[in-house]
């Protein structure tokens, strides 16, 4: 599988909103408030992105998108991982690890000292990948989000030590 990682381009915002909405509705039962949040995040990123310290990684195989991960600035020393998504046909082939590694490497090269992310406990494969990659679970709490009960998690990693 030859995969190219590209920055955010034409059509990516709509595709990401559609795929996040579809997959999270199918797998988690999320309502329409979730793709609305994804659109808000992406539209803000598209307008406010600082290419010197923020980046989108969209995975392409030929003319097909297979996933995404974003590195955004939380503060001068902290990057935030956002919108990590893998299409079902791309799972189990190492693409998730590659996306995570590229994103963390970009953050490190930009001088960030740490990286944080927010996710849900139900995303077991992603959480296992974070743990294997040196991330620490720092927060967990029950919540009602996107029309369902979830357990939210906060993870972080020290990029200097990792």
Describe this structure as you would to a colleague:
The chain is an alpha+beta fold. 35% of the residues lie in helices and 36% in strands. It has 4 helices and 7 strands, in the order E-H-H-E-E-E-H-E-H-E-E. It has a 7-stranded mixed β-sheet, sandwiched between helices. A hairpin with a 2-residue loop joins strand 6 (136-145) and strand 7. The longest helix has 17 residues, at 12-28. The mean pLDDT is 96.
Relevant terms:
162 residues, 7-stranded mixed beta sheet, 35% helix, single chain, alpha+beta
Mean residue pLDDT: 96
Distance between the termini: 28 Å
Strand count, sense and closure of the main sheet? 7 strands, mixed
How many helices?
4
Structural class: alpha+beta
Present the secondary structure layout.
Layout lengths: L3 E3 L5 H17 L4 H16 L6 E7 L2 E12 L2 E9 L8 H15 L4 E7 L3 H9 L3 E10 L2 E11 L4
Parallel strand pairs: 4-5
Antiparallel strand pairs: 1-2, 2-3, 3-4, 5-7, 6-7
In short:
Helix content is 35%, strand content 36%. It has 162 residues and is α+β, with helices and mostly antiparallel strands. Helix 1 runs antiparallel to helix 2.
